[in-house]
Amino acid sequence: MAFRDECGVFGIWPMPEASRQAYLGLYALQHRGQEAAGICSRDNGRLHLHKAQGYVADVFSEATLDRLPGDAAIGHTRYSTTGGNVASAAHPFVVEGRFGQIALCHNGNLTNTEILRHRLIEAGQVFSSPSDSEVILALINRAQAPSLEDAVVEALRQVEGAFSVLILTEDALMAARDPHGFRPLAMGRLGEATTFSSETCAFDLLGADYVREVEPGELVVVDRQGTRSRFPLARVQARPCVFEHVYFARPDSLVYGLSVMATRRDMGRLLARRHPVAADLVVPVPDSGVSAALGYSEESGIPFDFGLIRNHYVGRTFIEPRQSIRSFGVKVKLNPVRELLRGKRVVLVDDSVVRGTTSRKIVSMVRAAGAAEVHMRISSPPTTHPCFYGIDTPDREHLLAARMDVEGIRTFIGADSVGYLTLDDLQASVKDAGGESFCYACFTGEYPVTPRSKGTCG
Amino acid sequence: MAFRDECGVFGIWPMPEASRQAYLGLYALQHRGQEAAGICSRDNGRLHLHKAQGYVADVFSEATLDRLPGDAAIGHTRYSTTGGNVASAAHPFVVEGRFGQIALCHNGNLTNTEILRHRLIEAGQVFSSPSDSEVILALINRAQAPSLEDAVVEALRQVEGAFSVLILTEDALMAARDPHGFRPLAMGRLGEATTFSSETCAFDLLGADYVREVEPGELVVVDRQGTRSRFPLARVQARPCVFEHVYFARPDSLVYGLSVMATRRDMGRLLARRHPVAADLVVPVPDSGVSAALGYSEESGIPFDFGLIRNHYVGRTFIEPRQSIRSFGVKVKLNPVRELLRGKRVVLVDDSVVRGTTSRKIVSMVRAAGAAEVHMRISSPPTTHPCFYGIDTPDREHLLAARMDVEGIRTFIGADSVGYLTLDDLQASVKDAGGESFCYACFTGEYPVTPRSKGTCG
Amino acid sequence: MAFRDECGVFGIWPMPEASRQAYLGLYALQHRGQEAAGICSRDNGRLHLHKAQGYVADVFSEATLDRLPGDAAIGHTRYSTTGGNVASAAHPFVVEGRFGQIALCHNGNLTNTEILRHRLIEAGQVFSSPSDSEVILALINRAQAPSLEDAVVEALRQVEGAFSVLILTEDALMAARDPHGFRPLAMGRLGEATTFSSETCAFDLLGADYVREVEPGELVVVDRQGTRSRFPLARVQARPCVFEHVYFARPDSLVYGLSVMATRRDMGRLLARRHPVAADLVVPVPDSGVSAALGYSEESGIPFDFGLIRNHYVGRTFIEPRQSIRSFGVKVKLNPVRELLRGKRVVLVDDSVVRGTTSRKIVSMVRAAGAAEVHMRISSPPTTHPCFYGIDTPDREHLLAARMDVEGIRTFIGADSVGYLTLDDLQASVKDAGGESFCYACFTGEYPVTPRSKGTCG
Amino acid sequence: MAFRDECGVFGIWPMPEASRQAYLGLYALQHRGQEAAGICSRDNGRLHLHKAQGYVADVFSEATLDRLPGDAAIGHTRYSTTGGNVASAAHPFVVEGRFGQIALCHNGNLTNTEILRHRLIEAGQVFSSPSDSEVILALINRAQAPSLEDAVVEALRQVEGAFSVLILTEDALMAARDPHGFRPLAMGRLGEATTFSSETCAFDLLGADYVREVEPGELVVVDRQGTRSRFPLARVQARPCVFEHVYFARPDSLVYGLSVMATRRDMGRLLARRHPVAADLVVPVPDSGVSAALGYSEESGIPFDFGLIRNHYVGRTFIEPRQSIRSFGVKVKLNPVRELLRGKRVVLVDDSVVRGTTSRKIVSMVRAAGAAEVHMRISSPPTTHPCFYGIDTPDREHLLAARMDVEGIRTFIGADSVGYLTLDDLQASVKDAGGESFCYACFTGEYPVTPRSKGTCG
Asked: Binding positions for [4Fe-4S] cluster (chains A, B, C, D) (predicted)?
C-alpha cells in the first residue's frame, strides 16, 4: 500500500492482428495504470490510433480494435496525469513530420524536460500537452541526422532521466531504455514476432517466451530486416528501480530477470530476521504485502493468515452517507476478520509507508477488531525522498519518514512496534540481478541523475 | 472456483439516509451477485424504487440515491437470471395492492413456484416476470388474513423451499427465513436501527454490530413500535446450506454465527489429514481456495505460496484475437508463477469441482509452468447433485462427479492424484453451528424439501 | 404550441422482421411521445419485450431488435408520465396469466381506473405501476369468459373513457377502440400483413396502404385465420378528439380519414373570415401553426412568411448562464427574423393557447424585433376545460381561457388583438368526417363520458 | 438539400461565464456542424479546453462548463472530417509555445496547406492532426515578429485560401478574415463584451447587438485595452461565398450584412420570372428550399404549401429492415402529403442539386403521391465545380451538372421540367452587399485563389 502506479508499455512486430495482441498485453499490464489506455497500429506504412480514458477493457471494443489494422502495434496504459486535461495526456502520441508518421509511448520521467521544452519553444516548436513524449518527438524531428534511426538516437542522447520507450514508425518498431535503465523493459518472442513489455506477465498471457531485458542504454530496432541492437547512449552504471520489486510489479512477473514473488518473499524473510517479535499471527496488508508476509511467517514460524480481506469489487466511485461522521476511506477496500484477530498479537506486513495515513487507519482497524498487539513490519527502508524517475510520489514534506524517525512513525500510526527493512537487506534481496547498484534514491536521496525539472510521468 | 454466486439482501430501519446505508450494504455484498442491483426506500409511507443491471457502484449515483429518500430501505444484488429479460428480473419488486405498497426481495429458490403460480393464474392473477418474488407478493395480497403481518405469514406458509426474504411496507420492515433456513440472514444493530444482511461483512462496512441470526422459520417485524419476533412457520429440522461456508460467503463474514475463514481453514486441515501427499508446495486456486490451502499447509507442514496469480482487473469483456487457436478462458484470470512452480510437487487446493473443465485447464497450466507433480485437493465432497434452494448449478449430467468416480475425475483433469474432503470432515468443520444437520444435498442427493419445480433464484 | 403530446401505438401481423417494421412505425410516430418507447414481438408463441426511456432511435439498436424475433409486433411511444418511476411506465406491458403471455399498449386515458383498480385490489390483485394498461390486463385475466377473445371483450366492456388499444397474444394481434372513439387508430395493409397505427404517416414510411379506421367500439382480431371484426362494445355516438386535427397529428397524416393538413388550412381560412385584420404579414408559430397560417394568408391575401425561425437542434438539455437575468425559455427554440418583422403589422397564427405564458413571450419577442402591431389568431376556440381522454392538460385553474375573457387574454399576452376560431367554424373544418359530433370537451366542458377518476395516459 | 455544412465559430471577451455564453453561441450555430464541438476559455492567463464528438448539447454539461472558467472564450462546431481520427480533428486547437498558450479555431479551407506543411516539416515541425489550424499555429510560433500580434499577422500573410479565424491567447482575443473574405464573420456587442460569430443568429440568442462584419483582410484584437482593428493583409477584391445565402446560413441570420431570408425570397422571385410554368402548387424541399419557394409562389401567384413534411426526430441512426428491397434514404426524412399532391401540377423548389440522387428520389416520391406533373426549380445556377474554400463538396465527376446539361439533368431526376437560377439573377439577389463580386466558383470554375492543395475544412 504505497505509491501510486506508473505506466506500462507493450509492443509487437510482425504479428497478424497486432492491435489485438497489444490489447492482451495491456490487459495484463492494467495494474500499472488505470487512468487511460491507447494503442497505435501500423498497416501498410500508415499508423492508426485509438486512445481514451478508462480501463483497457472499457477503452477498446471489437469495433475500435477493427479500426487498428496491421501487423505491428504499440500500446500504453497510464496512471496519473500531471495537470489538467486528462484526455490529451493519454499515450501513444502520434505525429507527422520529417520522417512521416511516428507513434511514441514511454514509461518513466525525464529530468530535463523543462530545459528542452524551453529550448524547443524558443525555436518555434509548439506543444499540445505537457507530456515528455511530445518533447522526444520534437527532438527526433529536429535532429540533424538524416535517417530516422539516427534521429532517434540523437534525440535520446539529449534527454535525461528515466525512459523505457517504444516507437512505432511507418517501417519499424523501436525499443529503447535510458542509460541507467531506471524502468524495466523486457523482450519476448512469439513465433516470428519480437515483443516488448514492461513486465513479463504480458508475455505469459500472449503465450510469448521471455528472451531477455532490453539493456540500459540499448536501442533495439525491429523491421523487415529482422531485429538488431545498438548501444548508442552513454555507458553508465545501470540503476534499475528497486521499487518495481518492492511494490509495483505483478508478483508473477520477472523484472530485471528476477522473479518478483521470490524477491518479495526474501524481503519478508530478511525482515523477520532483522525485526523479530513475539506474536501470534502474521497478517499481510493485501495485496502488495502478501509475499513479504509469507516470507516473514516462514522465517519466524509465526502462522500466516488473511486477517484483512480486500473487497475486489471496489469501483471508481463510492458514495458516502452525507451525515456520516466516519470516514470510509480504507474500510471500503479492507475489512478485518474479527474472529481471527481477536486477542492476537499481530504482525502486520506492508511493503512501504508513504504518508502514513492509511497505515494509521489500518492499525486502528486491526486494534478495533480485537488485536492485542499490532506490530508493523515494512518490507523496504523508510521512504524519505521523492522519485523523479517515473513514480508518482508526494513532495518530501508529505513523506512520513522524511518528517520523523521510526519512533515518531510508530506513535503516528499507533503501532506497538515498527520495523523497516534495512537498505543492506533490500540490496541482498535483489542481489542476483546486481542489486547493489540499483536506484535506491527514494530511501537515500542519492539521485543517479540530478533532477533539473519534474517531467511528466509517461 | 465453483458454482456461480446467488444473491444478497440488505435492509435497515429506522435510519436517516437509509438508501445510502443500503448502498453500503450492497457494496459489501457485491460478491453475491454482479448482474443487477436495486434499492427500495420508504419515506412518509411511500415507497421509492431504483433498480438496474450492473454493479452496485454503476447502478447507483448521488442522483439516483437522492431519489430514494426516507428512513427505511431494502436492497438486493443479483447474480443470474433464469430466462430472457434481465432488467425485469432485478429486485426488489414493488407492487400496490390491498395493503398499499409492498416491496420484496429475497435470496433463495422456492420449490413449489410452478404449482403456486399455476393456481394463482387460474384465479386470474398475472405475472410480469418469472420471479418467485412476484408469487409471494400475490399470495400476500390474496391472503384471507385481515392484517398485513398475518397475510405475510399466510403467504409464507404456502411457499416451499428456500427463502431469506426482506419486505418493506408503508409501515414496517419484515425479515423472514424459511423453516429449514437454507439461506443465511443475519440481524445487526446500528444505533437505533435494526438491520438485516445476508452476510455480516455488510455490518462491518456500516459500522453496525452483529446481533444474531434470523432463525429458520422466524419472522422479525420492525416498525415504529420497535422490533418483534414470531415463529409462525412449521417447526422442522434446520438445514442451512453448507456451501456458503465452502465457497459463497466472503471469508470475513460470519455465516450462521460461524467465521467463514475459520471453517475453511478447518476444511483444509481435515483435508490434509484425509489426503496427505509428499509435496513441495501448497498452492490455492484463488481466491476461494486460499483459506483451505492455508489450513492444508499448516496441517501438512508443506509450504504455502501463491503459485497462481489472479488478475484483479478482469472486466466483463475480453476480446480474443480472431486467429487465435488457443482459448484464453482461465488464462485471463490466472497466471502461474513459473519460477515458483518449476520442478515442484504441487498440491493445488480448490473448494469444489463442478464441470471439471476449469480444473483441467488449471492443472494443465500448472504443469506447463514446470510443476513436477500436481495433486488436486478439494475442500468439499464430490458435487453430485444440483441445488434447488438458491444456488445456480448445472443439471446433473453436467456435474463431473455425477458422471465418474474419483479416478475418472483424476484422469479427466489430468492430476497425479485427487482428494476430496469426506462428508464427515465437512460436517466436522461446521459442527459449532450444528453442522451435522446442515443441507448437504449437493453432495448426497438427500433433499430436505422435495423439489417440485425449479424456482427463480432471487 | 399547445398541450403536450400523448402517445402513439403501432402493430403488425404477419410480417418477417415484425419488430423492425414496428421500429419504423414508431419512428414515424415519434412526435406523439418522446419520453419512452417499447416493442413487444411474438415468435413461435413466445413474447419478447424491450422498452426503455428515450427516443425510438436511442432505445433500439440492431442488437435490441435482434432480441425481438418473430412475425408479429406491437409498439408504443410515450410522452408523459403521471408520477414517479418513469421506467416502469413505459409500454407495452407484458404479463403471463390464464391465457399465457399477453402484451398490451394503449393510447388514451380511462376514466374509471380508480374504481376498477380499487375493486381489483380488494380481490387480491396487485399492480406494479399506475398504468391503465395493467388494469385492463388484470380484467382480461379475471374475466369469466373461457376464450381470450371473449375475455378481452369482457374486460373492455368494464372500462370507461378513451382507449385505442393493441393487444399481442401468443396467437393473435387485436386492435380495439373505445365506443366513443376518442383517440384515432388506423388500419393498413402491407403485402399479407395487417397493420395498425395511431396515424397514417407510419404507413407511409413502411410503404403500407391505408385501409380504413378501426371504428369506435370495434374489435379487430388478426391471427392465422386472417382478419376479422366485431363490434362487441356499447353502441354510442362516436366522439373523436378534434384536437388531433388542431394540434397533435402530423400534417401528412390522415386522422379519422381526413387530411390533417387540409383541415388545418381550412381552420386558417375560416379564422381569416371570422377575424380579419389590416396587416402586412402572416407569421406562423412553428411548427404547429404553419398550415393554419397558410390558410389565413390565402384567405386574407396578406403575405405569409416565416418570421419566427425554429432551431431544429434543440436537445433535451440547455444550460443557461448562471448569472443571467433573462429567461431563455422560448428563445432557445424560436428566433424572430428582425429584417422581416421590422415595422410590420403582424398576424401571428398559433393553434391554441394553454397557459398563455409562451404566447406572451412570443408576442413580446416579435415586438422587440420591431413589429408595429401584433395580432394573435388562434385556430381553435378558447381552451377552457381539461381533457380526461388522453391529453396531458393542466388543471382548469391553469388554463388561461378558463380564467379570463378574450380581452383579458389580449392584455395578458400583450397583443393588439386576439381572435379565436369559433366552435362552429372548427366543426365545419372537420365536417367531412362527421365533425359536428366530435369531442369538443376542452372547449365546452361537455364531457361525453363522466370522468370518475384520472387515468394514466398511455 | 445540397452540400454538407461546414463549420461555425464563436468568441467573446470580456464576459462573466464566457464559456456558457460560447455554449449559447454554438447552440445557435449547431446547423453549421454536428460532428464535434469545442470551447476554450481563458481564466487568469490560463487556457482551459473541452472538445468532443457530438452535438453541442451532448458535448457540454454543467460539469464540463464548470471546468472552463474565465471571462473569455472561443468555440467551434464542426461538420465533416477529412480522414480518419474524428476526435483529433475537433477544434479549438490549443498549443503551448513561444507566446505561451494559444487556442485557435477557424471556418474555411486553406489552399496552400500542403506546401506550408511540407516546409514546416522540413524545418522539424511535427503535426498531430491534418487540420489547417495546426499549420497556422506553427507559423505563428515560428514567426520572426517579436510580438504575438505581429506573429499572427506574419502567419496569416503566409496562408492562402479561406479562413475566418478566432484566436484566444493568454491576454487577448483576436478575429481575422482572409483577404477575400470567403467565409462570414460578424462582430457584435453584449454590454461591455465584444463578440464574434459566423452568423448573427448566435447574437440573437445571447441578446447581443450586431455591430458589423469583420472585414475581409481585417484583424480585430480585443484585450484589456479594448478593441482595435488593423488591415494587415493584402488588399484584394472581396469574394464572400454566395452559397451561405443560397443554402448554409440560418434564414434568421444576417450574413455579410444581408438578411438571408430576404435574399432567398428574392432568389425565388427571380426564379419564377426566369422559369415560369403553368402549375397548381409550389412545394419546397424542406427546410432549405422554403424561402425561395415562398418567393416563387409570391411572384408566380401559384399557391404555396408543404407538400413534403420533414420528420424532425430523425436521429443519427436508422435501422432498416434486413430483407427490405426498398431504400429508406430520403423517406425517413421526408413524407409526401398525398391529399395535397394528388392530381396537382407541382413546382418543387430546392436550393441546389449536387449529385442528383436525392432530387431523383424526391421527384419520384412526389409522383408516387399522385402529382400530375413535377417541375423542379433550383434557386441557384448549376453546380459544376467543387469548392476549395471551406465547403465539403464531392469531386467534380460526382457533380451532376458537371456531367450533363439541363436536359440531361431533367431526364436523370425524372422531372417534367427543370429550371435553374441564372448567375445574373443570383448576383442580383445579393447586390445590396456588393454581390456582383462574390465568389461564384462552384458555378463558374473561376477560382479567386488558385487551389494548390486541399486543406482540411475547419
From this structure: 241, 387, 439, 442
Nearest 5°: CA angle at D426, between D425 and D432? 100
Residue D375's CB: how many other CB atoms inside 10 A?
A: 23
Q: How far apart are CA B349 and CA B419, in angstroms?
A: 10
Residue type, A381: P
With 70 as the cut, is the pLDDT of residue D198 above it? yes
Distances from the Cα of C271 to the Cα of A414, C288, C298, D217, angstroms: 86, 15, 11, 53
| CB contact residues (below 8 A), chain A span 197-216, against chain D | none
> H helices within D357-452, ranges in order?
357-368, 400-403, 406-413, 423-429, 441-444
Phi/psi at D37 (5° precision) = -150, 155
Q: Cα C425 from chain centroid? A: 22
Q: What positions of B carry a catalytic annotation? A: 7
Give the residue extent of every domain in chain D: 7-238, 258-313+326-444
Element (H, E) at D97: strand D93-97
- Collect all residues of chain D within an 8 Å Cβ-Cβ radius of residue A48: 84
> How far is the C-alpha of B82 from the C-alpha of B335, rounded, in Å?
32
Please write the tens of the pLDDT for every residue from B140-184.
Answer: 999 999 999 999 999 999 999 999 999 999 999 999 999 999 999
Tell whether A97 lies on the interface with D, counting CB pairs under 8 A: yes
Could A97 and D137 be called an inter-chain contact, meaning their C-beta atoms sit closer than 8 Å? no
Q: Tens digits of per-residue pLDDT, C258-304?
A: 999 999 999 999 999 999 999 999 999 998 899 999 999 999 999 99
Q: What is the CATH number of domain D258-313+326-444?
A: 3.40.50.2020
SS3 content of chain D, % helix, strand, coil (to 5): 35, 25, 40
The residue behind cell 467463514 is: B260
Inspect the structure and tell me whether chains C and B have 3 or more CB pairs less than 8 Å apart. yes
Task: Name the residue facing D137 among A48, A85, A126 (closest C-beta).
Answer: A126
Exposure of C443 in the CB half-sphere (CA atoms within 13 A): 22
CA atoms of C401 and C384, how far apart (whole Å) = 5
Report if pTM > 0.90.
Answer: yes
Length of chain C: 458
Write down the CATH superfamily of domain A7-238.
Aminohydrolase, N-terminal nucleophile (Ntn) domain (3.60.20.10)
Closest CA to A318 of B205, B240, B370: B205
CA-CA distance, C9 to B415, in Å (whole number)? Answer: 62
- Binding site as annotated, residues of C for Mg(2+): 288, 350-351
Query: Nearest-CA neighbor of B86 among B78, B97, B94?
Result: B78
The stretches of C230-369 forming alpha helices (DSSP H) are 243, 260-274, 290-300, 329-333, 338-341, 357-368
Question: Distance, in angstroms, between D4 CA and closest chain A CA?
Answer: 25
Class for domain A258-438, per CATH? alpha beta
Answer whether B38's CB lies under 8 Å from B52's CB: yes
Put simply, the chain D residues between 313 and 352 with a CB less than 8 A from any chain C CB are 313-323, 326, 328, 331-332, 335-340
Confidence of residue A1 (pLDDT cuts 50, 70, 90): very low
Using CA atoms, how far apart are residues A307 and A298, in angstroms rounded to an integer? 17
D127 vs A: CB within 8 A: yes
CA pair distance D127, C56, nearest whole angstrom: 41
Domain B7-241, classified CATH 3.60.20.10, yes or no = yes
B425's grid cell: 470432515
Cell of A4: 501510486
Q: Is the peptide bond before B303 cis (omega within 30 degrees of 0)?
A: no
DSSP state, residue B418: E
| pLDDT score at A2 | 42
Question: D297: helix, coil or strand?
Answer: helix
Active site residue D40: no
3-state class (DSSP) for residue B249: coil
Test A142 with D127 for CB contact under 8 angstroms. no
